[in-house]
Design brief:
The protein is α+β, with helices and mostly antiparallel strands and 180 residues long. The protein is built from 2 helices and 8 strands; from the N terminus they run H-E-H-E-E-E-E-E-E-E. The longest helix is centred in the N-terminal third of the chain and has 22 residues, at 2-23. It is elongated, with a radius of gyration of 17 Å.
Amino acid sequence: MKRISSVVLATAVLCVAMAPSVRAQGSLRYGFNVGLLMPMSTYNDLDKMGWIAGAGATYWLPGNIGVRVDGSYSQTSHKDVLGSPVPGSTKIAGGMASVVYALMPASAPARVFITAGLGLYNVKSDTSITKVGFGGGAGVALKLGPSSMRLVLASRYTSISTAGKSTGFLPITVGLTFGQ
Protein backbone atom coordinates (compact mmCIF):
# COMPACT_ATOMS: atom_id res chain seq x y z
CA MET A 1 0.00 0.00 0.00
CA LYS A 2 2.82 2.39 0.91
CA ARG A 3 4.53 1.63 -2.42
CA ILE A 4 1.37 2.42 -4.43
CA SER A 5 0.85 5.67 -2.52
CA SER A 6 4.46 6.63 -3.31
CA VAL A 7 3.95 5.90 -7.02
CA VAL A 8 0.74 7.97 -7.14
CA LEU A 9 2.45 10.86 -5.31
CA ALA A 10 5.51 10.70 -7.60
CA THR A 11 3.24 10.73 -10.67
CA ALA A 12 1.40 13.81 -9.41
CA VAL A 13 4.67 15.64 -8.67
CA LEU A 14 6.04 14.72 -12.11
CA CYS A 15 2.88 16.02 -13.82
CA VAL A 16 3.12 19.35 -11.99
CA ALA A 17 6.87 19.66 -12.69
CA MET A 18 6.43 18.92 -16.39
CA ALA A 19 3.41 21.20 -16.88
CA PRO A 20 5.26 24.32 -18.22
CA SER A 21 7.27 22.46 -20.88
CA VAL A 22 4.38 20.16 -21.82
CA ARG A 23 2.01 23.07 -22.55
CA ALA A 24 4.28 24.23 -25.38
CA GLN A 25 3.54 21.04 -27.35
CA GLY A 26 0.04 20.00 -26.28
CA SER A 27 -2.20 20.67 -23.31
CA LEU A 28 -2.33 19.32 -19.78
CA ARG A 29 -5.53 18.88 -17.77
CA TYR A 30 -5.57 17.64 -14.19
CA GLY A 31 -8.32 17.08 -11.67
CA PHE A 32 -10.07 14.93 -9.11
CA ASN A 33 -13.22 12.82 -8.89
CA VAL A 34 -15.49 10.98 -6.46
CA GLY A 35 -18.28 8.49 -6.98
CA LEU A 36 -19.92 5.15 -6.45
CA LEU A 37 -18.18 1.83 -6.99
CA MET A 38 -20.27 -1.12 -8.12
CA PRO A 39 -18.63 -4.52 -7.61
CA MET A 40 -19.03 -6.85 -10.62
CA SER A 41 -18.82 -10.64 -11.13
CA THR A 42 -17.42 -12.57 -8.11
CA TYR A 43 -16.57 -9.31 -6.29
CA ASN A 44 -20.33 -8.54 -6.36
CA ASP A 45 -21.03 -11.90 -4.68
CA LEU A 46 -19.03 -10.77 -1.64
CA ASP A 47 -19.36 -6.97 -1.35
CA LYS A 48 -21.97 -4.20 -1.48
CA MET A 49 -21.76 -0.97 -3.47
CA GLY A 50 -19.09 1.36 -2.10
CA TRP A 51 -17.29 4.61 -2.86
CA ILE A 52 -14.25 5.68 -4.88
CA ALA A 53 -12.08 8.82 -5.01
CA GLY A 54 -9.24 9.67 -7.34
CA ALA A 55 -7.03 12.21 -9.05
CA GLY A 56 -5.27 12.29 -12.37
CA ALA A 57 -3.81 14.19 -15.28
CA THR A 58 -4.28 13.96 -19.05
CA TYR A 59 -1.77 15.19 -21.58
CA TRP A 60 -3.66 16.00 -24.78
CA LEU A 61 -1.59 15.72 -27.93
CA PRO A 62 -2.53 18.10 -30.74
CA GLY A 63 -5.82 16.64 -31.98
CA ASN A 64 -8.15 14.32 -30.09
CA ILE A 65 -5.76 11.78 -28.51
CA GLY A 66 -4.47 12.00 -24.96
CA VAL A 67 -2.43 10.03 -22.45
CA ARG A 68 -3.87 9.81 -18.93
CA VAL A 69 -2.34 8.79 -15.60
CA ASP A 70 -4.60 8.49 -12.57
CA GLY A 71 -4.73 7.05 -9.09
CA SER A 72 -7.72 5.96 -7.05
CA TYR A 73 -8.76 4.58 -3.68
CA SER A 74 -12.03 2.74 -3.04
CA GLN A 75 -13.79 0.86 -0.30
CA THR A 76 -16.75 -1.53 -0.17
CA SER A 77 -18.32 -3.42 2.77
CA HIS A 78 -18.89 -7.16 2.82
CA LYS A 79 -22.44 -8.41 2.18
CA ASP A 80 -24.51 -10.21 4.80
CA VAL A 81 -24.51 -14.02 4.53
CA LEU A 82 -27.84 -15.74 5.29
CA GLY A 83 -29.03 -12.62 7.11
CA SER A 84 -25.95 -12.41 9.33
CA PRO A 85 -23.58 -9.44 8.97
CA VAL A 86 -20.06 -10.21 7.80
CA PRO A 87 -17.56 -7.77 9.31
CA GLY A 88 -14.89 -6.19 7.18
CA SER A 89 -14.41 -4.41 3.91
CA THR A 90 -12.45 -4.53 0.66
CA LYS A 91 -10.09 -1.64 -0.06
CA ILE A 92 -8.56 -1.09 -3.50
CA ALA A 93 -5.78 1.42 -4.18
CA GLY A 94 -3.92 1.81 -7.44
CA GLY A 95 -3.16 3.66 -10.59
CA MET A 96 -3.68 3.31 -14.31
CA ALA A 97 -2.05 4.68 -17.46
CA SER A 98 -4.56 5.07 -20.30
CA VAL A 99 -4.98 6.23 -23.86
CA VAL A 100 -7.89 8.64 -24.28
CA TYR A 101 -9.71 9.45 -27.52
CA ALA A 102 -12.10 12.43 -27.63
CA LEU A 103 -14.96 12.25 -30.12
CA MET A 104 -15.20 16.07 -30.27
CA PRO A 105 -12.63 18.88 -30.37
CA ALA A 106 -11.52 20.63 -27.16
CA SER A 107 -13.52 23.72 -28.18
CA ALA A 108 -16.86 21.82 -28.00
CA PRO A 109 -19.09 22.64 -25.00
CA ALA A 110 -19.40 18.90 -24.27
CA ARG A 111 -16.53 16.55 -25.10
CA VAL A 112 -17.36 12.83 -25.17
CA PHE A 113 -14.36 10.52 -24.76
CA ILE A 114 -13.41 6.84 -24.57
CA THR A 115 -10.47 5.41 -22.68
CA ALA A 116 -8.55 2.14 -22.24
CA GLY A 117 -5.54 1.38 -20.07
CA LEU A 118 -3.38 -0.80 -17.87
CA GLY A 119 -2.62 -0.34 -14.20
CA LEU A 120 -1.35 -1.72 -10.90
CA TYR A 121 -3.72 -2.22 -7.95
CA ASN A 122 -3.51 -3.36 -4.34
CA VAL A 123 -6.62 -5.26 -3.19
CA LYS A 124 -6.93 -5.64 0.57
CA SER A 125 -9.69 -7.70 2.18
CA ASP A 126 -8.73 -10.65 4.37
CA THR A 127 -5.30 -10.55 2.73
CA SER A 128 -3.45 -7.98 0.67
CA ILE A 129 -2.36 -8.61 -2.92
CA THR A 130 -0.96 -6.32 -5.63
CA LYS A 131 -1.75 -7.24 -9.22
CA VAL A 132 -2.05 -5.84 -12.74
CA GLY A 133 -5.44 -4.61 -13.89
CA PHE A 134 -6.92 -3.27 -17.09
CA GLY A 135 -9.90 -1.11 -17.87
CA GLY A 136 -11.95 0.67 -20.47
CA GLY A 137 -14.73 3.20 -20.34
CA ALA A 138 -16.28 6.46 -21.47
CA GLY A 139 -17.29 9.86 -20.20
CA VAL A 140 -18.28 13.39 -21.02
CA ALA A 141 -16.52 16.63 -20.04
CA LEU A 142 -18.77 19.70 -19.88
CA LYS A 143 -17.35 23.23 -20.03
CA LEU A 144 -18.29 25.37 -17.03
CA GLY A 145 -18.66 28.94 -18.28
CA PRO A 146 -15.76 30.88 -19.74
CA SER A 147 -13.19 29.29 -17.39
CA SER A 148 -11.01 26.30 -18.26
CA MET A 149 -12.81 24.22 -15.62
CA ARG A 150 -14.84 21.18 -16.80
CA LEU A 151 -17.35 18.95 -15.03
CA VAL A 152 -16.55 15.33 -15.93
CA LEU A 153 -18.99 12.42 -15.67
CA ALA A 154 -17.30 9.09 -16.37
CA SER A 155 -17.24 5.35 -15.87
CA ARG A 156 -14.53 2.77 -16.58
CA TYR A 157 -14.91 -0.98 -16.05
CA THR A 158 -11.78 -2.27 -14.33
CA SER A 159 -10.69 -5.88 -13.88
CA ILE A 160 -7.86 -7.00 -11.59
CA SER A 161 -6.56 -10.60 -11.71
CA THR A 162 -6.62 -11.86 -8.12
CA ALA A 163 -6.17 -15.41 -6.80
CA GLY A 164 -7.47 -17.39 -9.79
CA LYS A 165 -10.41 -15.04 -10.35
CA SER A 166 -10.86 -11.41 -11.25
CA THR A 167 -11.96 -8.50 -9.11
CA GLY A 168 -14.08 -6.43 -11.47
CA PHE A 169 -15.77 -3.15 -10.68
CA LEU A 170 -17.56 -0.29 -12.38
CA PRO A 171 -17.07 3.16 -10.85
CA ILE A 172 -19.46 5.97 -11.74
CA THR A 173 -17.68 9.24 -10.97
CA VAL A 174 -18.15 12.97 -11.12
CA GLY A 175 -15.18 15.32 -11.03
CA LEU A 176 -13.61 18.62 -11.97
CA THR A 177 -10.66 19.18 -14.30
CA PHE A 178 -8.50 22.25 -14.77
CA GLY A 179 -5.85 23.33 -17.26
CA GLN A 180 -5.70 23.96 -20.98
